[in-house]
Specification:
Order of helices and strands: EHEHEHEHEHHEEHEHEEHHHHH
Radius of gyration: 20 Å
Number of helices: 13
Structural class: alpha/beta
Helix content: 25-40%
Largest sheet: 7 strands, parallel
Length: 349
C-alpha cells in the first residue's frame, strides 16, 4: 500500500495521446505538477493542446523528450516523481512488421520505463495502461469462461505475432510489468485494462482507431452495413479518472477491467440515430458474414479473425474497478453522442 505525496510531480508517458491527454488534463485541473513525455519536442503541433491546458488550469506542466526504444531516456523526466503513469504504447491494427511496429515498442518500452523506475529512488507506484486485449484475444475465448464474463483473472492465450498482434503486444507488455514488479520492493504496480475507448478527443488528430471508427460512422462509410462485432466500451474520461484513482488511492491494487457496457456495433449506430436522426448515413443492418469473409482481408480482417469474432457477444465483469477504484461509468450513449459532436465541432466529419 503506497501513499503518494500530491506535491510530488507525476510522470505521464506518451502524454500527447488520446487517453494520456485526458490524464494530463485531470492532473492539471487538480493542481498537480505533471512531467509529460513526448517523442519529439520540436514537433510542437502534437502537444500544443497540453500547453493550452496548462494556461487554463492551476497545475504546472513540464515537457520532456523520451523514446520507448531508447534506454534511459525517461530518467530525466522521472526525477523526483513518486507516481509514474505509463500510457505510451503503439496502437495500430494494420501493420507491415508486427514485431517492429507493435511488439518491440510495447515490450521493450515497458521494460525501459520500469527499469528507469528501479533506478529512480523517488518512485513509489506505477500505473500501467494495459487493455482488455490482455484479458482475452478473441470473442470466442470469452464463451469458454465459466459464467461467460471475462474478469481480471483471465489472460489472453490466443493471440500471437500473426493473429491479433496488437492484443499480443499488450499481453506481453503487461506480463513483463508483473514480472518486473515481483523482482523489487521499491514500487508497486496498478494496471488499467480498458475496453474500446470512445469519447471526445482533446485534439484534432485522427490517427486513433477509436476516432477513425467514429468518423467512419459519421461519414457514411458503413451505410451499407456493419460487421456484427461486439465491444466493451468505455469513455476516455472514465479511463483517465481510473488512472488517477489507481495512482492516488493507497489501497488500489491489481488489474482493473475498465468497461462501462458491452455493445454491438449496430446498437452503437442506433444510439447515435436517437440524437442525430438522418443527419448522417448511419448503418441500419449487419453485413452477412460470408461477405466479410470475402472482402474482410481487404479491410485487414483475416479469416481467422472473422471466424472467432464476428457474430459473438462479449461480457465483462467490471465490479472490481467499481470497488477498488470507486469507479462510476458514464452511459455509453453520452460517450458516443459527445464523441460525434466533438468531431463535428472540429470539422473532422
Amino acid at each position: 500500500m503506497k501513499e503518494i505525496n500530491p506535491q510530488s510531480p507525476v510522470l505521464v508517458t506518451g502524454a500527447s495521446g488520446y487517453v494520456a491527454s485526458w490524464v494530463v488534463k485531470e492532473l492539471l485541473e487538480k493542481g498537480h505538477t505533471v512531467h509529460a513525455t513526448v517523442r519529439n519536442l520540436s514537433n510542437k503541433q502534437r502537444f500544443e493542446h497540453l500547453l493550452r491546458l496548462e494556461d487554463q488550469t492551476p497545475g504546472t506542466l513540464k515537457m520532456f523528450e523520451a523514446d520507448l526504444m531508447q534506454l534511459g531516456s525517461f530518467q530525466e523526466a522521472m526525477k523526483g516523481c513518486e507516481l509514474v503513469i505509463h500510457t505510451a504504447s503503439p496502437f495500430f491494427l494494420k501493420v507491415k512488421d508486427a514485431q517492429k511496429q507493435l511488439i518491440d515498442p510495447a515490450l521493450k518500452g515497458t521494460r525501459n520505463v520500469l527499469q528507469s523506475a528501479n533506478e529512480t529512488s523517488s518512485v513509489k507506484r506505477i500505473v500501467l495502461t494495459s487493455s482488455v486485449a490482455a484479458v482475452y484475444g478473441d470473442a470466442a475465448d470469452i464463451q469458454e469462461i465459466p459464467g461467460g464474463a471475462a474478469n481480471e483473472e483471465n489472460w489472453n492465450h490466443s493471440s500471437s505475432l500473426t493473429h491479433q498482434p496488437y492484443s499480443y503486444s499488450k499481453t506481453l507488455a503487461e506480463k513483463e510489468a508483473w514480472k518486473m514488479v515481483g523482482e523489487q520492493d521499491q514500487w508497486d504496480l496498478v494496471v488499467i485494462n480498458p475496453g474500446f475507448i470512445m469519447g471526445p478527443s482533446l485534439t484534432k488528430r485522427t490517427d486513433s482507431i477509436s476516432i477513425d471508427f467514429m468518423r467512419s460512422m459519421g461519414s457514411g462509410k458503413f451505410r451499407m452495413g456493419l460487421p456484427h462485432l461486439c465491444f466493451g466500451i468505455v469513455d476516455v474520461r472514465d479511463v483517465a479518472k481510473a488512472h488517477l484513482q489507481a495512482g492516488f488511492l493507497p489501497q488500489a491494487s491489481g488489474r482493473h477491467i475498465t468497461v462501462a457496457e458491452s455493445m454491438a456495433t449496430l446498437e452503437m449506430a442506433s444510439l447515435l440515430g436517437k440524437t442525430f436522426g438522418d443527419k448522417y448515413s448511419l448503418p441500419k443492418s449487419y453485413l452477412p458474414k460470408f461477405l466479410i469473409y470475402l472482402f474482410g482481408p481487404l479491410q485487414g480482417f483475416t479469416w481467422k479473425y472473422v471466424k472467432r469474432n464476428v457474430g459473438y457477444s462479449l461480457n465483462f465483469d467490471n465490479s472490481y474497478s467499481k470497488k477498488d477504484l470507486q469507479m462510476e461509468y458514464l452511459p455509453v450513449e453520452q460517450t458516443l453522442v459527445e464523441h460525434l459532436r466533438q468531431l463535428e465541432r472540429d470539422g473532422l466529419l
